[in-house]
Every structure is written in structure tokens, then in C-alpha cells.
Amino acid sequence: MAIARALARRPKALLLDEPFSAVDRATREGLHAQIQSLRAYLAMPVVLVTHDMTEAQALADRMVVIAAGRMVAEGPTAAVLSDPAALRAVGLREAAAMLRATVLRHHPDGMSELTTATGTIWLPRVDAAPGTRLQVRIMAHDVILSRARPEGLSAQNILPVRVIDQRQGDGPAVMVRLAVGTDQLLARITRRAADQLALQPGEQTHAILKSMSVARDHIARDAG
After folding, report:
1. Is the Cα torsion angle 70, 83, 62, 216 positive or negative in sign?
2. Cβ atoms 206, 147 nearer than 8 A
3. N or C: at which end does the chain have fewer Cβ atoms within 10 angstroms?
4. How far is 186 from 57, CA to CA, in rounded Å?
5. How high is the mean pLDDT in each 10-residue block of the chain (224 residues)?
């Protein structure tokens, strides 16, 4: 209702200041889907103010990171959240990427099978019907890289990916951007590991992630 009242005045821009902070998870997901659908019909820019990086990644095309009243980074959301300067402001453990996936089927062992641009991933039971398109937030610190496809692992999710670039901050970590079809993943690995792998832009490698590392609230419907 508040958004309807705001739009009735025919504004030049729509400002949403922490609009989902006081609602439960199920309601929040429904509102996210409504905002995504609404954006397709609006000619005006929509500005979302939030401290929730999951929310920002799910809804924002572009992101501005502000710390102590100063703009630290600005640009496409995926690029900003792989920028060491921006991550120092929002927290290195917030580095993540949104991977698009479609529910294929549910299995009796409690796992859901999803398809992505380059392969299958398995997640604990996802509350969505087969055919549902989702966005899955994958944390950079949960991604392991391997030049060759590994065997004999407990991790079920092994995706062929292509190296886009590597970004090194002031500390011992390196952020590796990876292409999964037209989507991206981020892998936060040590500088030592990066030197040993010696990955170059354009090279093929494998991203490994544990099924149990994906939090339930990091899975949302893709309204795009």
C-alpha cells in the first residue's frame, strides 16, 4: 500500500529505505518477487537502501557502497562485490555471487536436483516445484577450485567454469571471478593457492561447493 501511494504521486524516482527489515522470511521473499516484477513496468529508477547483502544481490542491478559518509565503490552489483575496496566496507565474508538455477526434481533422500548453465547442483530440499527458476547465493569462501575435475569427494557440486580475472587485496586472500555460462561465481582463496594454481583469464577450471553450505535464506525465486 505504501508503494502504491508513492507511485500515485508520479514521482521521478522511487526510494525504498530498508523496506523489508520488519517482516518474516516468507513475507520478505514474496515482497522481493513483487519488487522485481514491478521494476519491469517502471520507467523511473528504484533506489534500495539496505544492509542486507543477500537482498542487495537479489534485487539490485547496480550497487553503491557507502562507508562513513563516503562512496567506496559503484558499479554493476557483481563487479562491486568482487572489489576488495568495497568488501573491506561491507565485510569480506559477504563476498558472494548469485547463480541462476532451475529446479529439476526432488529426490527421496531429501535432496533437490537443480540445473545451472554448466551443470547440475544438489541442495537440501528446496521448497519449490520442478521448473521453478531460482537465484542461489553462493558465498565466495565456500567455493574451492581445482584445475582437473576431482574424484572421490564428499562434495556433490562440481561445476565447469572459466576464469574471468583475479583481484588481490592487502591481505593474504585473492578473489577469483569465474564465469558459469553468462552467470558468475566468486572464489576467495589464499594467495598461496592462487600462486600454485597459476590460473589465467580465459582458462577452464572447476568450482566445487558443498551442498550443505548454502543457507536456506540464500535461495530465492528468480523473477527476472
Report:
1. negative
2. yes
3. N
4. 13
5. 68 82 72 74 82 82 87 85 76 84 97 96 95 93 95 93 89 91 93 95 96 87 71
